[in-house]
Amino acid sequence: MSDxxxxxxxxxxxxxxxxxxxxxxxxxxxxxxVVGMGGSGVSGDYLRSVAGESTARVHVHKDYGxxxxxxxxRRALVVAASYSGNTEETLDGVADARAxxxxxxxxxxxxxxxxxxxxxxxxxxxxTGLQPRAAVGYLAGxxxxxxxxxxxxxxxxxxxxxxxxxxxxxxxxGSAAWAEAxxxxxxxxxxxxxxxxxxxxxxxxAARWKTQINENAKMPAWASYLPELNHNELVGWETxxxxxxxxxxxVALTDVDDHPRVGARRGFSEQLTSDAVPWxxxxxxxxxxxxxxxxxxxxxxxxxxxxxARNEGVDPTPVGTIEKLKVLLRD
Length: 331
Description:
This protein has two domains: 4-161, 3-Layer(aba) Sandwich (Rossmann fold); 172-312, Rossmann fold (3-Layer(aba) Sandwich), CATH 3.40.50.10490. The strands form two sheets. It has a five-stranded parallel beta sheet with strand order 2-1-3-4-5, with helices on both faces. A four-stranded parallel beta sheet has the order 7-6-8-9, with helices on both faces. It is of the alpha/beta class and 331 residues long. Helix 8 (157-170) runs parallel beside helix 13 and helix 10 runs parallel beside helix 13. The protein has helices at residues 4-8, 11-20, 38-51, 70-74, 88-99, 111-117, 136-149, 157-170, 176-187, 202-217, 241-247, 260-273, 290-312, 320-330, and strands spanning 31-36, 57-61, 77-82, 104-108, 123-125, 192-197, 221-225, 248-254, 279-284.
């Protein structure tokens, strides 16, 4: 079995790398659009969360081009994130951006994106050797440094350094985070996981938990968000309680930036649905900076997904069905 845990445990070093690099010069911008998919596109989600504490606006584009029409009039800085450099949707977005004369910076290990840059675009060269989803510290950290270089956010290096220390502590076997993750993974055995979040940190990382369970544990999962889910999904638990109680489970993520009413809604939602679905864990973020709290919940989710794979005897690294899809798309 491949060692995904070893990749996950490089997170602290990834964040230190991001704090020490010198990003290339980019034009000043208070509006950025991050173009990226999957594990690379998460960097845009995390940057958008952090930028919420500033006056900058960050948008995330997870699709083919063309990019939205407003990017030209607002002269948004385009940040292309692709760990492999070969993500076709990202390459399509970059081609569209360049054809429209937009400023683009690439974050990649190489591949076609680096070839496309060909010395004419600024590039942050990301270290190789990981699965894209395990390179979240490299990509999210680099995105923060690029945004700061553009003047969009404050210097993120203190937050990156705090996050690195937090990651090292949490990823040590026997830590409180490790024990919490182990208990959560055990509670999720044989169940489809639903992850509930409800704010700029908890809601953002809920999506990361969902995709990590998909890719590492090779299991279905979904993420939903308070308060929105109280206006629809809440009533979805009424009709099939026997089936859902035996096959599904909810993990709730929380953070100090969640709206106070979201906390109340979370409690009442559990009260109203616990006969139809078990709420097996509530995971609280920790850390001072918003980015550190994002990373704390990220570490927890990465550990849970790895432990779920271990519990099922599944190799967490390969993503065979995605590779088969790529072959079909080439044919």
